[in-house]
Design goal:
The protein is α+β, with helices and mostly antiparallel strands. The chain has two domains: 5-101, Winged helix-like DNA-binding domain superfamily/Winged helix DNA-binding domain (Arc Repressor Mutant, subunit A, Orthogonal Bundle); 109-266, Chorismate lyase (3-Layer(aba) Sandwich). Helix content is 32%, strand content 29%. A hairpin with a 5-residue loop joins strand 9 (233-242) and strand 10.
Length: 270
């Protein structure tokens, strides 16, 4: 399909009822022509979501409409939409069409730590004991993932599990756009979910995740923070979180000292 008078007329007809389609066309046109058309369409759709023209719950134009709107065939549209679905940005429903994922679905890779109580049916309460946001020049595994930088933003939390023990959590961020976090009040951070923090406030939805679990021992500093003995065995749980275009979003490290509780790691609190 090529841009001609017929195609231009179709574009006018389709965009009359939805100005966002003309923006999609513009996003497609500015993509480097050296890229395959499916990649150009994927990037154009990604821009629509990133810049808020398509929001969670919105229906994406149909395959037929996209193939009429743009100089691409149906197979090209299907390839682009399949890629968007695979990265968790849209959900394709048989006979209903494709829809931008709801925030809860976008954040489905975020893990929750839940410790079972004595009956094994309920969870011990988790309470923020301390929370702090600061800049650090410290280097570590997060540096390899986020990329070398002079400074990182760090959200450090100590959480109480019931009245039994504490766990330690750090989230490292390398992107300059997260610097406003340094000015957040502690009260804002206590009740703020990671999904809201990254998707709604910074426009960077959490998508794919790599997880790593290993065993370690508490350092003198960590032991003091958790009111435990130095050298006590602990579980070290690491998350490498990605956002759109498979870019690194954050590196999270959680330390759980040895305890007698059963731990459930899940992707929702249900």
């Amino acid at each position: 399909m090529v841009w001609n008078d017929t195609a231009s007329a179709l574009v006018r007809d389709l965009t009359e009822n939805d100005f966002r389609l003309s923006i999609l066309v513009d996003y497609f046109k500015v993509q480097p022509t050296i890229k395959p058309k499916s990649a150009r369409l994927y990037e154009a759709c990604l821009k629509m979501i990133e810049n808020g023209y398509w929001t969670p719950g919105d229906r994406v134009p149909s395959e037929k409409d996209l193939s009429q709107l743009l100089p691409v065939g149906l197979s090209t549209v299907q390839t682009a939409l399949r890629r968007l679905a695979e990265t968790g940005l849209i959900q394709r429903k048989r006979k209903a069409g494709s829809f931008v994922c709801e925030p809860a679905a976008i954040g489905r890779e975020l893990a929750y730590f839940l410790f079972l109580d004595d009956d094994g049916k309920n969870y011990l309460p988790t309470i923020d004991v301390e929370i702090e946001v600061y800049e650090t020049s410290e280097q570590g595994d997060w540096s390899d993932f986020l990329g070398e930088a002079m400074r990182y933003i760090c959200i450090e939390r100590i959480l109480g599990i019931g009245s039994e023990f504490r766990i330690h959590n750090k989230i490292y961020l390398g992107h300059a756009k997260f610097r406003p976090l340094l000015h957040f009040a502690t009260s804002e951070l206590r009740d703020l979910s990671l999904r809201i923090l990254f998707q709604d406030k910074f426009g960077m939805p959490p998508l794919g995740t790599d997880r790593c679990i290993r065993f370690s021992h508490l350092s003198e500093k960590l032991a003091a923070q958790l009111n435990e003995e130095t050298g006590k065995p602990s579980l070290l749980y690491e998350i490498r979180q990605y956002t759109v275009r498979n870019d690194p979003l954050f590196f999270m490290q959680t330390v759980v000292p040895q305890n007698n509780r059963k731990l459930r790691v899940c992707t929702s609190t249900r």
